Queue: 4 jobs
Job 1
Amino acid sequence: MFFQQSQLLNTLPNQFFANLVKKVNAKIKAGNDVINLGQGNPDQPTFNYIVKAMQQATAKPINHKYSPFSGLASLKQAAADFYQQHYGVKVDPNKEIAILGGSKIGLVELPWALMNPGDTMLLPDPGYPDYLSGAALGQVNYQTFPLLEKNNFLPDYDNFDLSAAKKAKFMYLNYPNNPTGAAATPEFYQKTVAFAKKHHLGIVSDFAYGALGFDGYQNPSFLQAAGAKDVGIEIYTFSKTFNMAGWRLAFAVGNQSIISALNLIQDHLFVSVFPAIQEAGITALTSPQAEAEIQQLVALYQKRRDAFVEAALKIGWRAFVPRGTFYVWMPVPKGYTSESFADLLLDKVNVAVAPGKGFGTLGDQYVRIGLLVSPAKLVEAVGRIATLQLFDQEN
């Protein structure tokens, strides 16, 4: 028997990058030496002190039982203490924190929990593609707002589409930004709160790369802005800060009514996260080793960024120099789209990059470079690209 999938599933966006993965895998299977700069998966292992904590936690019989539905109170307290320590933000762990099985869950389930079919949300272009999945599954409409290089890839509130702002219920922001590497400022977040209050707009800050700031820059939290908890939440994941992408652990923090709705929908979808993972998360947040490990990780990514940006500049390929994340956002040469340029690099020189089109219409003149290989490999990739003579090399 064949069972037709639901109409709801038919509304889901195509997974743009699945096609890229197929192309890359086919090249590798054929024996080609591919340098893969198209991925967004941390290449470093989880910090060892966290792994050891997990090993111990899995041996505890208490952790073989169901978790409390809304997660361990001790993890919520650790998250609250983390925000107090790093951002000076005081939150109630019982009412203003929700434990998530990865940040993607929170971002995708929020429209189900807080919007009605036909409501509108505002999403960045370019932006994280899975935001669109949340809109589809929540059966809500979305409008995009532009992130332009001339504005450092921040929304321009002075020239924003006010008709969109007035009818929208929520707005997603993501800084440090995937795919551009742009960073937010405290002043920007203060403007965001004022904009949100003026238009009765909820804010969802996707802070996935919050710990990854370059050149000594400390990325601000949205919640540091006065009045931020009145209008929104922030979602913090362990994936990038602690190299725990496969562990699937995150938390949402902020506005009590939003947190309550997220906890309620999760009561019906999950029984929280494996308690041993939550215990490891507590160790990640509270260990005195954490700060040194994170600083080393940021230094590694910055070394890679500098190696790539400097090598690219020598061949006349000028980057938007990122202040955070582990990506570099690069313009495509004239005469190419992001997809045709990516195909050219893969076919001719065995370098895989992520076409900007996968992040939105305004991304189509860029490609995203993942800083997830060694500096030597990044420089080698630029050397391969240089053989195509697509750029005006500097003397």
Job 2
Amino acid sequence: MRTSLAGMTAASSRFEASAGRVAAAGVSGPMPAGTDAPTAPGALQPAPSGGVAMPEVSFAAEAVEQMTAKAAYQASVATFRAANEMTRDVLDLLA
């Protein structure tokens, strides 16, 4: 069950990151306070003006990323439900 929960958390994080990249596509503005140099692909990049520039976002790639994250989340939910049902059956046998 813990593995399923970890899978749901990871898939949710992947989806959220992708949605953030799509939402920030083409946005520029001041660099958020306390932001270090970005290391992740698709992260906000420092612009020469001292602000922030979002790199080009591939909407097709982000759509695939979101569909993959959704499928991974659904698979983790199915695994959690199966583990929960098996645990319930074992407890019924022991009762």
Job 3
Amino acid sequence: MIIQKEANELINQINHIRDLMILTGLRNGLNDDQTLKYSKELDKLIHKYQLMTSFSSYTS
């Protein structure tokens, strides 16, 4: 199913950005511009995933 494949790709992106955010936060601090950039990107990806999975539950 196409939605499942897209959801899996999104999960991989979420995990990657989360790892980058954690590493950057540990190295540069939680208020560092790069850490905050990753945090915002992570929020967007999680929101996209939530929309995708909630939409797919309505269409199943």
Job 4
Amino acid sequence: MNQNVEERINNVVSSVINCSSADVLPEKHLYYDLLADSMMMIDLMLVLEQEFALNIKDDGLDDVNYVKDLYRLIHEQCN
């Protein structure tokens, strides 16, 4: 995937979850490592939709637990 896309996702994650961008790594768990809660995840999806001009399905979060899952989700949505 395009490095710039991953960087943009990382920036959104660090902004919404209020963590250091250095902590946003593909293998980090959004809930357990980065301490996101369900409201942050909803905000995250809304901001990612705006950032990438996408319309992510309501069940789009179902398989998202790790940062790398966000990369996969955005990549799938962009194609």
